[in-house]
Amino acid sequence: MNPGISQYAVGDSFDGFLLIKSATKGTASNGKPFLTLIVKDQSGEIEAKLWDATKEDEATYLPDQIVKFHGEITQFRNKPQLKIFNARLAQPTDGVKLDDFLEKAPVSREDLMESITERIFEMSNPNLQRITRHFVSNYQEGLLTYPAAVKNHHEYVSGLAHHVVSMLNLAKSLVDLYPDLNKDLLYAGVILHDLGKLRELSGPATPSYTLEGQLLGHIPMMMDEIGAVAKELGIEGEEVTMLQHMILSHHGKGEWGSPKPPLIREAEILHQIDNIDAKMNMLNRALEKVQPGEFTDRMFAMDNRRFYKPLFTEPS
Amino acid sequence: MNPGISQYAVGDSFDGFLLIKSATKGTASNGKPFLTLIVKDQSGEIEAKLWDATKEDEATYLPDQIVKFHGEITQFRNKPQLKIFNARLAQPTDGVKLDDFLEKAPVSREDLMESITERIFEMSNPNLQRITRHFVSNYQEGLLTYPAAVKNHHEYVSGLAHHVVSMLNLAKSLVDLYPDLNKDLLYAGVILHDLGKLRELSGPATPSYTLEGQLLGHIPMMMDEIGAVAKELGIEGEEVTMLQHMILSHHGKGEWGSPKPPLIREAEILHQIDNIDAKMNMLNRALEKVQPGEFTDRMFAMDNRRFYKPLFTEPS
Amino acid sequence: MNPGISQYAVGDSFDGFLLIKSATKGTASNGKPFLTLIVKDQSGEIEAKLWDATKEDEATYLPDQIVKFHGEITQFRNKPQLKIFNARLAQPTDGVKLDDFLEKAPVSREDLMESITERIFEMSNPNLQRITRHFVSNYQEGLLTYPAAVKNHHEYVSGLAHHVVSMLNLAKSLVDLYPDLNKDLLYAGVILHDLGKLRELSGPATPSYTLEGQLLGHIPMMMDEIGAVAKELGIEGEEVTMLQHMILSHHGKGEWGSPKPPLIREAEILHQIDNIDAKMNMLNRALEKVQPGEFTDRMFAMDNRRFYKPLFTEPS
Amino acid sequence: MNPGISQYAVGDSFDGFLLIKSATKGTASNGKPFLTLIVKDQSGEIEAKLWDATKEDEATYLPDQIVKFHGEITQFRNKPQLKIFNARLAQPTDGVKLDDFLEKAPVSREDLMESITERIFEMSNPNLQRITRHFVSNYQEGLLTYPAAVKNHHEYVSGLAHHVVSMLNLAKSLVDLYPDLNKDLLYAGVILHDLGKLRELSGPATPSYTLEGQLLGHIPMMMDEIGAVAKELGIEGEEVTMLQHMILSHHGKGEWGSPKPPLIREAEILHQIDNIDAKMNMLNRALEKVQPGEFTDRMFAMDNRRFYKPLFTEPS
Amino acid sequence: MNPGISQYAVGDSFDGFLLIKSATKGTASNGKPFLTLIVKDQSGEIEAKLWDATKEDEATYLPDQIVKFHGEITQFRNKPQLKIFNARLAQPTDGVKLDDFLEKAPVSREDLMESITERIFEMSNPNLQRITRHFVSNYQEGLLTYPAAVKNHHEYVSGLAHHVVSMLNLAKSLVDLYPDLNKDLLYAGVILHDLGKLRELSGPATPSYTLEGQLLGHIPMMMDEIGAVAKELGIEGEEVTMLQHMILSHHGKGEWGSPKPPLIREAEILHQIDNIDAKMNMLNRALEKVQPGEFTDRMFAMDNRRFYKPLFTEPS
Amino acid sequence: MNPGISQYAVGDSFDGFLLIKSATKGTASNGKPFLTLIVKDQSGEIEAKLWDATKEDEATYLPDQIVKFHGEITQFRNKPQLKIFNARLAQPTDGVKLDDFLEKAPVSREDLMESITERIFEMSNPNLQRITRHFVSNYQEGLLTYPAAVKNHHEYVSGLAHHVVSMLNLAKSLVDLYPDLNKDLLYAGVILHDLGKLRELSGPATPSYTLEGQLLGHIPMMMDEIGAVAKELGIEGEEVTMLQHMILSHHGKGEWGSPKPPLIREAEILHQIDNIDAKMNMLNRALEKVQPGEFTDRMFAMDNRRFYKPLFTEPS
């Protein structure tokens, strides 16, 4: 198989299939129209230019199309760019499919589901367990396919479940180290904390924000759903309020979208491990792309820092 | 009738009934126990000291009791204080009742209700009208008796409805001046915006925060209830989302408790008029207490400013 | 009449007159000079490119010239651009004049003046009335032609008076709703609050900042002028200080340019209604440009928010 | 002569004259009235208690009275307190006068005036020189007696002139080191920068804020006066605007009371040397009160820092 | 054995030994001297009042003395206070010793040391291992006795080692979950991160800040020591710089005392787990003191929040 | 001699030598490669474009090469640009050398060294004098050649010594004006405060940040070195701690890189004069480039302000 698009160097020629993520028309300084495409495969994405584009080109090369490109990697403002020599839409006989071009979690859906199920099974509080199980059953497909975010961290197919399972592992360690923590509440909070993203985002593959997502946000919507499910299951009592509070406060502060800060121990910890797992995901993926002795690009979601990869940190 | 407690000057003697708001025990430097009471009538409140308090006194003078006091107004750290000479619980034959000691809105319940009803009647969007009417019917008693806040503004019986009606008047003026505003959405938002306080606060008379109020807050709880009521009434569509957004965003910013800032025109205006009416209520009441040519005390909710009352602003 | 320039779509050809707002020379990658013009009519503005510009072109197409253009609407970085095929200066025989290309307030000068006069007439405090009348008489031409700001809100011919009249309407409503407000002080403050812009800005049509405007600012300059006028008219007393304070504090905070925050009730309200009217002006004009179901562009002066136009808010 | 009040230790008895700065009535826990006085001499101030105060005492021991006290230094909440055994008003025959109890600048009025005159003499720009000389002549008495501030720095008789002369010395050094600086502008700015305090504060001895001072502030008032004086002297041109800008911007930022930040080189330097001289005044006086090896109290105006006095910094 | 002082309720009488932490003299309103003592045992501390204190009392009841008190628990400003009836210094025959009155880590010194040694043993990078071992050998006594902080978290004997061992456990879990982390660097960072506190604080029992601690701080001092030790051991290369960076950046931000933010992955994680372990220590100890269904006091180091202890979180 | 590159106007032709600071490859919209060079001489720098660059060009025109260019000054995005017609590397026979193209301090190395030596000679505390002399001897070459910063202020050859000498002059003035200042401590602090830049930056000519510089920073590294030197010289006592504190705190605040704020008087003054000298250097150089009556460009390090150059400030 070909190397991914992000492995190509300036000057390399390219021949292969890529998925169009977005397409924009422009007019060159010579007055001729051109197309700017963002194209991608599982390894990453690149900007591509189709100069002297015809009306037909404009009508053909649209988002979500898979296209065979022939071109060369050039450089524009310090970033690589694909200069397209020619292009054609993928044919059924090419044997390529959408899934091959989307980045995915490095763990299988089955393994992710099993990890979640196992933790639910360990819960001893029947109210929390029933609510959690209800959501996991009813939203299983979304939970296992959606990304955890549109960008920054876990922004790939199954990213949501991958994030949840990583956090469950962290939660399990913390429960062992700090036995005062209420395991049931923490597990339920971890599993449900971002499930409102199924309403906030438009879908698993190339997600955008829904109207509800923009005007209400996943946090209040999920608090709302927990209330409704509890009522539906006939569950009353403090567990429901505590679980709703966990969801509501998991961003930690008003400025970050939580109308209440964490006011119970497990809510504070949920916020902390959400933070750690998101940061580890971002850092690991950014550091993978650089050589020992180099710095990463500025990372917006890490206060714009550039991280260094020490020379001696190579796996032993 | 006697003047209110806030009209007494240092050196005056006092004889009359007051409501106990809180009671705390202490030990004087001579080793003897004493009681510190916060006592009030409709005009305001004062700290009172009962020196050499007996065990019986401690068991008798409890919050929410009406008591006949004989004493004198002294001064402590620049604030007036009631030094109690003697005290006894009110008797049925005294003919005093709780209501006489609570500050109330300056408009009657009937008039407040009529104003609200009139605005609902003017609404033309049936979905928004039905949702609003449903809440007003179901929560009428609370709406007409709760305060709008525990302190700072409209913190008196019927304060919530008083605040709503003032804001409705403002909203009506704005709709006339800026006809692009959607009147129905704005009226519905005004009427419902703080109704979550009925769950956030413990009651109309001497309100404290409920557990739900502290961990979830009135904003997400009210958004939640609107969703439930819309479902119950079989109403779907953008009106529901917009109304939920109005509630969610009416504090204006994350730091002030709104998980989303206003993102529609009417939500921005709802935030503005909530702000103006709260400030006018605070300013008017603070300026009433000072003479022309004087400054008020520092007002915490007005960025700690002291406001000046000009010599020439007396009503003409 | 032709549609305005902001109604043209990419691909349309254009033939008509436009006013040049600014002109910049550049060198294309082929080494040839070109001109970048910002051109406008009452509907808005667009960037235009004149490729292969001659020395004569550079000397001809200057700011404030009206020019007949033939060209086509293209797209550059997601914004429309006018590609000029040919151009010539407007001739006297073309019958076009500067005024036709400038955006104006939607209310006539006469109506604006009448509204202001009416409010001054209603004032009962002779000192405040005389000072206000003096300014309105002496600065009438500027008051009726200047914009209220260089950008963001009321940034059109007569924008200052339009803003003042809108705020007077708001002030009148508030005085009715909150009778404790001093009407005279509030009206005087509204009418004079931004009059310092006549010294801060260079003129009514294509305003820039004067040196005084940049180094002193309209707020202290206007406070200064009120003091001078009061002295000239032989008026002394608290009204002058209060009116100066209204001007000084109307931006609300030090960070926003007010060396004192509002410390009297009417100053607080002046700040609030200045804020509301500016926001309504920005929101209404931004929402006019989008279809129901769409979001506006990010609005810098609204904390960079994008506002949504609901599907159901169409005027009934 | 007696040591100053600030040299007394807990347990010492006191016999001498002190000036009353403020007097407040209170009621002790035994129900008896007492007086809390703040009393002072040139060395500092102390809280004093007169227990069992009579009505006559209350009418006698008023602010600005000089009183002979007999008492003892005790301690209350970690601060020394004067417990009064007896007291009487000073008599003409006691030979004490107000001036003896007020802290003064360590430089004589004559020397301060001479330094200022000398700098004005060195100015070569006639416009700036005339304006500066006009103010110094017309406000000489106030300039030489007012404090520079109510608290924190140079808060003593002649503090304003002391601050100005210190800053002039600094300015002279800077003009030598950085010859690009415009000496005339800088000297004029230094001499006039705080002269608005003569309207902001009530008087030289025990200053409080005037109404104008609170609602307008010394910065805009002084800018205003410079404009009026320039007009009176028939001076026009950029010097006036620059000098007004120097005054307006000398607090450096909007948050600190300047409606414009420094936008010319000399304004930036004026802000810097104002800052340095105020800090040196505060630091020197705070460090004088502690022994080598000790820290000062927290200094509010120095970001609440406590400063250390090294063991080896004693004068050589 | 007696219950600890923090278990006593208002009204209880007290008879037992307590350690004096601080002693302050005061004068009562009746003119008589009294002593305010802060006294403590392992369970917590309380304010105590010795009224009518003699000169002898003042000379006897000094910090670090163990005293037998007879008295009663009263209440002052909502806090319990011990009113002392009589008191005497502990005698050798009483069989009480300093250690009995100091709070200690809940894990023995031996176990703490063993955990640290075990992790050092697991390190595979010889440079990092040698540096870490050198510090642990040379500073073993301090590491095993000092608190981790003067207040807020782990502020007890052996608190530093307790904090380190807790963090090592967390680090071990994270290394397992995120295998890209460099274990050696993380372990070395955890063990050394706060070792500068041995120079910053005066001692293990009742620590205060040293002069060096106040003027330099534990972070730069420890970076310095690592450089010196590396030189002494003849170790060069990136490991030293990385380890110094870990120490320097572990507070996360400039505002929190780190001159550099974390710029390598392990430094970010060190900051995170320092944060989590400190918070868990504070939360667990605060929640232990309240009953299910109650809130804790405001916790200053947790952004002033009060935390709720759910009714259903009791250990199963 | 030719005028410097920064004196050329758009339209001028250029013939002369320039030093390449950086070189980047690009691909034009016609598909042909081009080079973007930043080229400089002592007067400033300019962007240059070599269109249709060959592989040989790419290999030849590299950073730090001196090149003879023939071309023309054009304009791109409001900035001048050099369009290269032809180019060749400088030959030995051209008689040009690196030094001729680097900006230098306006004072000679010898004079700078003499000023520093003179101040050290005036110091009377032997410990501070010995430490300071040791550093100046050992790091003389770096001190006299390094810039004080990579950009903003004193960013030229010998900029560090130029900044130090300017600050010493300021310090001398302040010591005269405020005799309480400890001269020795202040001089030592000034001379050493930025010496850590010799490790933070890669070299004197075209400096970049070293790895140590990025991860540790010059402040903690210099504190560290002072400790090591003091130990080497056998110097103990408070002088060392105070000097280390001066270095550590000279950026003034945590946000600005100082882990401790100034806590001794001389540290506060060191911070202030570092600030003033950096600002004067930036302001003077920015104002030199504009004509009287103009504003400078926005200055990032001056809070993004543009400064005005008054018409009347020309040297008399």
From TrEMBL, chains A, B, C, D, E, F:
One Gene Ontology molecular-function label: exonuclease activity
Pfam family, one: HD
GO biological processes: rRNA 3'-end processing
InterPro entries documented for this protein: HD/PDEase_dom, HD_domain, NA-bd_OB-fold, YhaM_exoribonuc/phosphodiest
Recorded superkingdom: Bacteria
Key words of the record: Exonuclease, Hydrolase, Nuclease
Domain HD: 163-279
Protein's UniProt name: 3'-5' exoribonuclease
Species: Pontibacillus halophilus JSM 076056 = DSM 19796
